[in-house]
Amino acid sequence: MPLPLNALLVCGGKYHDMDYARLQLLEHLERDDRIRTRVREDYEDAAVLEDTDLLVTYTCDVRPSEPAQRALRDWVEAGGRWLALHGTNALLEPSPGKPFHCPEEYPLFMETLGSRFLAHPPITPYTVTVSNPDHPLMKGIEAFETEDELYLCEMIEGEGGIEPLLETRYTGKALGFEYDDWPDDDPRLVMYLHPVAAGCVLYLTLGHCRGKWDMRPLMDEYPIIERGAWELPVYHELLERGIRWAAEPKAEG
Asked: Which domains, and CATH codes, for the chain?
């Protein structure tokens, strides 16, 4: 009899509606009857990670300790598959009257993810195109428009390199962030694979969501409800494919 797959969902942090994201992701994970999911708000439970077959994360400004960074790295290097979503690579330090600063003190975490968030322009519709239509994760996916945070990142290829899957283009300003000027018309990766030794990270930057309480203490009440790409069927299809991809090693072994 096949054993269940142990999933770890890490969902927590700032400036996003974590309740909404957590519920949505748990519903996706529940659809695969092989998967049993445990939930944490940070990366510090190394004992649970050791018994994890697939890792899914939706965080913002959740900073792993050095032991937690090493545990994550070791887990991926040993063959783990990590589906990282939206703000997982975003560490933010607001200061009154100053732009958001993105600290560089977590290099092993960012090297494992393959990128570091630096900024995003104001939320407005943009087009996402397929970088590699022949990849199995992209079969049948066509270009689509979304109204989400457009992540502008420093890519960290490492020895395994970066395999682009989805991308967009942006030149202009990202007001409110320390890195506010983006003049080069380079592809801005929206989804990519980052192999790390025997394992791999699949990163999807889409998935912004925010409710009225989620910008505290910067403001008492946020004036609108934002759901970003969560409102698109194609986003949920990408999540389904990402979860199936993350479950493959144990499912095939």
From this structure: 5-252 (3.40.50.880)
